[in-house]
Structure formats: structure tokens, C-alpha cells
Amino acid sequence: MLDLPVWFEIGSFVFLGLLLLADLLIVARRPHVPSMKESSLWVCFYVSLALLFGLAMLWFAGGQAAGEFYAGWLTEYSLSVDNLFVFVIIMARFSVPRKYQQEVLMVGIIIALVLRGIFILLGAALIERFIWLFYIFGAFLIYTAIKLAKQQGEEEEYEENVLIRRMRRILPISDDYDGAKIRTTVDGKRLWTPMIIVFLAIGSTDLLFALDSIPAIFGLTREAFIVFTANIFALMGLRQLYFLLGGLLERLVYLSMGLSVILGFIGIKLILEAMHENSLPFINGGEPIEWAPTIPIWLSLSVIIGVMALAVVASLYKARNDPEAAAQLRGGDVSTEDVAIEEPTDLTGPPASAMRVPEDSAAPTEEKA
């Protein structure tokens, strides 16, 4: 059981909450496209905060807790970077003006935090009572890992879910954006703007992301405080990372492969832990399986760092020495300037059927939806 001072836990949440609020106010007051320098400074700031927080965990709770935090943060951060591909696609899919993308990302991050907070509380309560859920979580992560590995080289594509398709038919939506507003007035009639569909797309996608990320981090720690803070630090700075990486996202051709290895490893770790604390009567007569190996947190941290470093280095090497093959691994031709949408997006009608996101897809067109 994690033994942290109450003031440290409360102070951590208050500080992080104020930091997120300040970030939101900055975006709301000055919508703009951040420069590379600005994005770099913010990303370094948030990464430094996470590293310092891990040192604070080491001081107050010991090496085990610090190792669990770093492993969880790195895993969630890696998954978040991969999720940026989907954010890029959504932005291009709905032709969001570039200067308002920061606000969209910030709203998406807040939605993700709320959803993940709910999942974390539910997950912690369920795991406390039903440890056999680790069997299910482990199997799910292994399945996800296999699915990610099989998708290597396939084109990334965003498919609208049932909620988005239904809202298209129900809501009266204007033809054009009105800044970052979700409501506008056209010819004296109150309408929703296309931004409401973008927010719904980001939010519902965040819900799907949580289904992967929460079981993954519970495979590294059962402490709800560590799980939640690791998620907050992973999501903070994601907005600036979106603009910083830009075309580099398309060069990380082996990122999904690296994540599949990490998720598969954590899935196996979850199953092994479930075996150690087994209580299911149809497995080993309901008794713990003592011979199952234990994976220590230092090994988990080493695997996560090693796999992600190898995936990034291999991706950059591949992109530099064989750009055409790298483009095919990510699915399609690579352009350096534009996002090509093969069919126009009609936000009040059926969705477009095809879309490509080229290399510098962090700069979608500003054509009105």
C-alpha cells in the first residue's frame, strides 16, 4: 500500500489542476499556432515536471513507487503519442482551422482526463475485489498488441462512430466555423457549429483510448494515485507535442510495432500476477500458482524504455534512408505541405469516404468545412 503524506497527495492534485486551468486560459485568450520554439519549451517543461514528480515519489515513497510512476508515465505517454495520429486525422477530416486546433486539443485532453479518472476509480475498486480481472485485462492487452502488429503498414483512417453519425442527423449545424464556438447565429437562427462534431469525435475517441491505456497501467501499478498522476502527466503537454512533432509523426513508422510489444509484455505481466493471486476454482483448484515467474518493476521499466528507444531510432533510420518504404509503412504517399482530402467534408450529410494524411499532416488545410 502506498504510504504518502496526505498533504502531498492533495497538493499534487491542486497543483496539477491549477496548471491545467492556466493552460486552458492561455489557449482561450490567445488562439494561435505555436512556433517550434514555443512548443519545444512547453514540452520540455512538462517532461521536466514529470521527472521531478518521480523524484518526489522516490523521496516520499521509495524506489518501488517511483519506478511504477516512471513506467506508467512512459507507457501512457507512448500511447498518447500514437493517439496523436488519430487527432491529426480528425482535424483534417473536419478541416479545423489551424489556429483553433489548440483549443480543440485542450478540450480533448480535459475530456480524456475526466473519462480516465472515472475508469481509474472503477478499475481500482474492481481489482481490489476481483483480482481475476487481471486475466481479462491481460488477454485484452495481448489481443490489442496482436491487432496493432497486424496493422503495421496499413493506412491510418478515422471512422465515425454511431454517436457522431446520429448527432449529424439530429443537430442543425451551420456550414462554417465561427471561431472556436460551438453555437452561432445565422440569419437570426441559432445553430450548432461544426466544432461540436469535432469535440464529440475527439471525446468519443478518447473513450476508446482509455480502454487500452487504463488496463496497461494497472499492469504496472495498482495504486490509483500513481495511475491517475501518470495519466495527467502523460496528457499534459500533448497539445504542444502535436505541433512540435508535425511531420515527425509520419516518420515514426515503427511506433505502433513498439507499442504492440509493450502492450503484449504488460498483458503477460498481468496474467502472471493473476496466477500468483489466483482464486478461480477452475484454475489450479482455486489456489495461487506459485511457480509463475514474477516480473519486477525495474525490468518493466527497462523493457518500456528499451523498446520505445529502439522503435524511434529504427523509425528515423528507416525514414532517412528509405523514405518511400517509410511512407508505405504508414500507409500511402508522403507530401510535405498539404493534407489531401479526396472528397469534401459535408458536416450535415454523410461522411467522406476516403482521406489521406501525408507527412506534414499537423498542418491541415484551413478550407471551410
Keyphrases for this structure?
mainly alpha, 2 strands, 65% helix, globular, disordered C terminus
Tell me the strand percentage band: under 5%
Strand order within the widest sheet? 1-2
Based on secondary structure, the structural category is: mainly alpha
Low-confidence stretches: 332-369
The total count of strands amounts to 2
Global mean pLDDT: 78
Number of structurally distinct domains: 1
Q: What is the helix tally?
A: 13
Helix content: 55-70%
Pattern of helices and strands: HHHHHHEEHHHHHHH
Any idea what the shape is?
globular
Give the N-terminus to C-terminus distance in angstroms. Answer: 52 Å
Measured on Cα atoms, how large is the radius of gyration? 21 Å
Sheet bearing the most strands, described? 2 strands, antiparallel
What quaternary form is this? single chain
Please give a structural write-up.
- The protein is mostly helical.
- The chain has one domain (6-330).
- The protein contains 13 helices and 2 strands.
- It has a two-stranded antiparallel ribbon with strand order 1-2.
- α3 (63-93) runs antiparallel to α7, α4 runs antiparallel to α8 (224-235) and α6 (162-170) packs antiparallel against α7 (194-218).
- The longest helix is centred in the first third of the chain and has 31 residues, at 63-93.
- The chain is globular, with a radius of gyration of 21 Å.
